[in-house]
Amino acid sequence: MKLAIVILNWNGKKLLDQFLPSVIQHSQGADIYVADNASTDDSIAFINSNYPTITVIQNKENGGYAKGYNDALKTVEADVFCLLNSDVEVSPNWLEPVLETFKANPKTAIIQPKILDYKNKAYFEYAGAAGGFIDKYGYPYCRGRIFETIEKDEGQYNDTTEIFWATGACLFIKSKLYKDLNGFDEHFFAHMEEIDLCWRAKNLGHSIKYVGTSKVYHVGGATLNETNPKKTYLNFRNSLITLTKNANGFVLGKLFVRLILDGIAGIKFLFALKPKHFIAILKAHFSYYTHLNRVLKQRKATKNKINYYSRTSIVFDYFVTKKRDYKSL
């Protein structure tokens, strides 16, 4: 099984310098690529000088995560792509359990490993943790992370199990499926595009797994951290688009509830003296409406929409009934 590890880069020389050594050391047998999103720093010169075995793919523009990978992967030949963030440290033997799972389960098309926090390695990391799920209204959550509550890794998720979405911080996907899905939705730019990709794969009947015997350490927020209103904007807008495109049943009812819940989130930002995030949510909704005609056409083209949720409202579970960890749900 031929594996290609593809790291997307934009002005990330410091991250490459810090994290490439672990990828090279622990990824024997895999081809390693850096896909550069038209960086203006000396990232490429640094790679060419220090890591001549790494293949550089030069994208013509900074199309964000979605277009950046779509453009780069057109030139990569492999059975499996590993899309790896530039701020991830990998561990010894991180690849073997993933590849073995692919071989043992032919229907498995996407896998994520255990994602731990690079800054506090005893805890899960926000972006993906131990595998992702989504509630009826399109709010994502993870085993090991619900909203801002992060669990300590005590071996409780050392299993291999079916999940609904895999994090884009470290996502393994069969190349054929990636191409069949036409890759990521480039309108997303960044954030939530991996959930949309996984949802589309699920709607086609593919299996997505979490493999807890493989682990990596993710810094998180290296490009856009949680205090940046642009991240709030992208998360809220792209979540609405993902829900509209892929959800089964009466989607207008779900969107009405989302409008109320997003409004409450905006008010919370105001009370927390974060008016820029309140404005970001407003902008997210207005942008969503401008995309609505296209999104509804995409929805119509999705023939098989599966039942995608086990929790009606993770917002209610977390904020009202105070269920703060996955096992209490």
Short description:
By secondary structure, the protein is of the alpha/beta class.
How many beta strands in the DSSP annotation?
Answer: 14
Report the CATH C-level class of the largest domain. Answer: Alpha Beta
Rounded mean pLDDT score: 96
CATH topology of the largest domain: Spore Coat Polysaccharide Biosynthesis Protein SpsA, Chain A
**Contiguous uncertain segments of 5+ residues:** none
Description:
- It is a single chain.
- The chain is of the alpha/beta class and 329 residues long.
- It folds into 2 domains: 3-218, Alpha-Beta Complex (Spore Coat Polysaccharide Biosynthesis Protein SpsA, Chain A), CATH 3.90.550; 229-328, no CATH class.
- It has helices at residues 13-25, 43-50, 64-73, 96-104, 175-180, 193-203, 229-246, 251-271, 275-301, 314-319, and strands spanning 3-9, 31-37, 55-59, 80-84, 88-90, 108-117, 120-124, 132-134, 140-142, 145-146, 149-150, 160-162, 170-174, 207-218.
- α7 runs antiparallel to α8 (251-271).
- It starts with a strand and ends in a 10-residue tail after the last helix.
